Amino acid sequence: MPEMPATVDIWWWLTSGPDGPDRPADPSVLGPAEHATAARLPPHRAAEYIAYRSAVRHTLGHLLGASPASLAFGRRPCPECGDPDHGPPRVTHPDNSLWISISHTTGCVMLAVAPHEIGVDVEKQRPLRSPDLAARVLTPSERAHLSHAPDPAHYDRAFLTCWTRKEATLKAVGIGIATDLSALDSHPATPSPAHLTTTVQGPPTSWHVHDLALPDPYIAAVALPADAGSGLRLREGVRTPSAAEPPP
After folding, report:
1. Share of the chain above pLDDT 90, in %
2. For residue 68, how many other CB atoms are within 10 A of its CB?
3. How far is CA 153 from the centre of its chain?
4. pTM assigned to the model
5. Bond from prior residue into 94 cis (ω within 30 degrees of 0)
6. In a 3-state reduction of DSSP, which class is residue 46?
């Protein structure tokens, strides 16, 4: 079994833009399910999907000492109900103890790997000033914090800071956002790392959530167990001439 990293490694790539994706798309490494997904998408979204899935496969393949095309993906059991079909993602082949989290938004993808539970979320900043949306997903203290935003752009960024902290945490828990987001406070006024507490089928669990420095217009966060003691390493996206080589 390959030796797993002692740090939390986070890779990110741009998957679209005037110069094309950071890593050339490599459809030859995708599996049947990924090809089927790409075939259902409009051409521009299919190209972005292929770019991000092939980047993830090349990086994980390098880390696990396996060819990108040979990787198989599945799920860990859901920590809430035990269902094996909607728990956190994992690489099922080759055999390994790696925990992974993947997030994709228009133009950007992130991959986090760790020796323990991990969750990452990235969002592209966009207009989000909606009282109904805020009421559904934010706590009263979060809404109070956002009410002091001096302009729409600052509001949108503050909203997405709340959102990415919440989603990263819930992905680390293993349930995603299929829960009441307004029950989880992201403490947006607290500098990174923020301390969040969740309860899923048991006692409260503590998480440290780090905001990640990405170029505008992207906002991202990563969550890991508060007692993990792992280092955190952000592998900034760089343009590479070949999809055959992993990011630096």
Report:
1. 64
2. 22
3. 23
4. 0.89
5. yes
6. helix
Rounded to 5 degrees, what are φ and ψ at 93?
-145, 130
Most confident of 10-19, 93-102, 239-248: 93-102
What ranges do the domains of the chain cover? 8-235
pLDDT in tens, 158-180: 999 999 999 999 999 988 877 78
Burial zone of 180 (CB within 10 Å; 0-12 exposed, 13-18 middle, 19+ buried): exposed
Residue for token digits 């048991």? 202
**Cα separation of 34 and 49, whole Å?**
9
From the DSSP assignment, how many helices (H) and strands (E) are in the chain?
5, 10
3-state secondary structure at position 112: strand
Mean pLDDT, range 140-162, rounded to an integer: 94
CB half-sphere exposure, 111, CA atoms < 13 A: 23
Tokens found for residue 136: 């559904």
The CATH superfamily assigned to 8-235 is: 4'-phosphopantetheinyl transferase domain (3.90.470.20)
Instruction: Assign 240 to helix, strand or coil.
Output: coil
pLDDT digits (tens, 9 = 90+) for 27-84: 999 999 999 999 999 998 999 999 999 999 999 999 999 999 999 999 998 877 778 7
Burial-class residue 17 by CB neighbours within 10 Å (0-12, 13-18, 19+): exposed
